Amino acid sequence: MSRTILIVEDSPTEMQIVKNALQSRGYNVITAANGEEGIEKAHRERPQLVVLDIILPGKNGYQVCRDLKSSPDTKDVPVIMLTSKSQESDRFWGLKQGADAYLIKPWREDELLATVARHL
User: Fold this and answer.
1) Longest CA pairwise span in the chain (Å)
2) What's the whole-number average pLDDT of the chain?
3) Which of 39, 67, 73, 107 has an alpha carbon 20 to 30 Å from 9's alpha carbon atom?
4) Domain-by-domain residue ranges, the chain?
5) What topology does CATH give the domain 4-119?
6) Is the distance from CB of 19 to CB of 62 less than 8 angstroms?
7) What residues pair up with 79 in beta bridges, in sequence order?
């Protein structure tokens, strides 16, 4: 059975790069371009993992993570924040919202894939 991963990312270029990396390892990938769409797809599609940017139009990644982790339907879905926000306070706040991992852009493919595998 293919594992489904939801990518929530507003940059089409970044989304495609992450999608290609995950699909190259056999993951089924669904995407959302903003926070609200990400929450809706997480509830409807039931992915096994979410890769989440923080800087998004509408609800930001912190809010999306908090929503997902507080909902009975999605609270156990691992969330990997993948963001350009590189301050220690950003990482602290992301993990405080319930993120299971926090990766900083620019990211390395091997690091992303290892983190995904660890949380699935």
Assistant:
1) 38
2) 97
3) 73
4) 4-119
5) Rossmann fold (3.40.50)
6) no
7) 50
